[in-house]
Amino acid sequence: MKTLLSIVIPAYNEEDFIIHLLNSLRLQKFNMAKTEIIVVNNGSDDSTSNLMKEYKNQYRSLNITLAKEAKRHVSAARNKGARLAKGKLLIFLDSDNIVYSDFLFQIYTKVFVEGYEAGTIFTLAIEDSQKGHKLFLLLELIKLTFGKPFGKCFCSKRIFNAVGGYNKSITIGTNLDFLLRVKKLLQQEGKMLAHIQKPIFTSLRRFEQKGYASVLIRWFLGYIGIRKVHYPMCESSRYVVSSPI
Questions:
Q1: In angstroms, rounded to a whole number, what is the distance separating the alpha carbons of residues 100 and 91?
Q2: What confidence tier does 240 reach under pLDDT thresholds 50, 70, 90?
Q3: DSSP codes joined into one string, 8-38
Q4: Among candidate residues 115, 128, 130, 102, the one with its CA nearest the CA of residue 197
Q5: Among residues of the chain, what percentage have pLDDT more than 70?
Q6: Is the pLDDT of residue 231 over 60?
Q7: 10 Å Cβ neighbour count for 95?
Q8: Which comes out higher in pLDDT, residue 243 or 63?
């Protein structure tokens, strides 16, 4: 059966999270024969790689591809997954996401029934945290009010190739930078971005590890256009992670 949907998941030291995402994908109310899952190991030094191999062997009915990207940058990992993808539509998730059971069906409907080629996805916190939920609700309001898209997304492979994929030279606002280029191209073609309003979920771990203020300052810089911040190449311990921006 021809692949329609390609789910791209970058993974750097995700042994505590990625299985939960894969389980939520395994339980989708959708024909998974039309779907591939591409997990791009981005230089993990924990048990992520072994876990992925075991999961793939255990659930052979899922079309899982395991890939590697040596450059430790979430954009490089996403681009690698997109290059390997066979589907017409690319869905970009993070390893610490969990999706609802009709997630893929909703995206399929937006693209193959309603005719959208790209869109964003409402996201809330996995944890039972009022602060976390209020934060993501505020981010959703900002996204819808100011017209600068960010966060989890999907797009056709045609659109992805046309805009040149994710920018590997920036460390802040990688999603925002990508989606602004997607939106601009769609507007030139007389089209619009879709938006999935039913939320998926993501971990608050980065806020808990680095502090809300620190993470939000970086996201704000990305949102106002200060995105070209480079890490020294020799600092292998640093990793450019994904964010709502």
A1: 14
A2: low
A3: EEEESS-TTTHHHHHHHHHT-SS-GGGEEEE
A4: 102
A5: 93
A6: no
A7: 27
A8: 63
227 in Cβ contact with 170 (< 8 Å): yes
Which residue, 18, 41, 72, is CA-closest to 202? Answer: 18
d(CA 40, CA 11): 6
Tokens linked to 22: 């894969």
**Could you give the C-alpha distances from 125 to 36, 137, 186, 202, 205, in angstroms and in order?**
26, 10, 30, 5, 10
Q: Could you tell me what percent of the chain has a pLDDT over 90?
A: 84
Neighbours of 27 (CB within 10 A): 12
Q: What are phi and psi of 114, to 5 degrees?
A: -85, -15
What pLDDT shows up at residue 218? 87
Q: Is the pLDDT confidence value at 75 over 70?
A: yes
Residue 213 makes CB contacts below 8 A (sequence gap 6+) with none
DSSP string, 170-218: -SS-HHHHHHHHHHHHHHHTT---EEEEEEEEE--HHHHHH-HHHHHHH
Beta bridge partners, 97, equal 202
Reading the block at residue 179, the tokens are 């989606």
Return d(Cα 80, Cα 38) in angstroms, integer. 9
Tokens of 63: 């079309």
DSSP string, 157-170: HHHHHHHTS--TT-
Domains present along the chain, CATH in parentheses: 5-223 (3.90.550.10)
Question: Which band of pLDDT confidence, cut at 50, 70 and 90, is reported for residue 239?
Answer: low
- The pLDDT tens digits of the residues spanning 164-173 come to 999 999 988 9
| Other C-beta atoms lying within 10 Å of the C-beta of residue 127 | 15
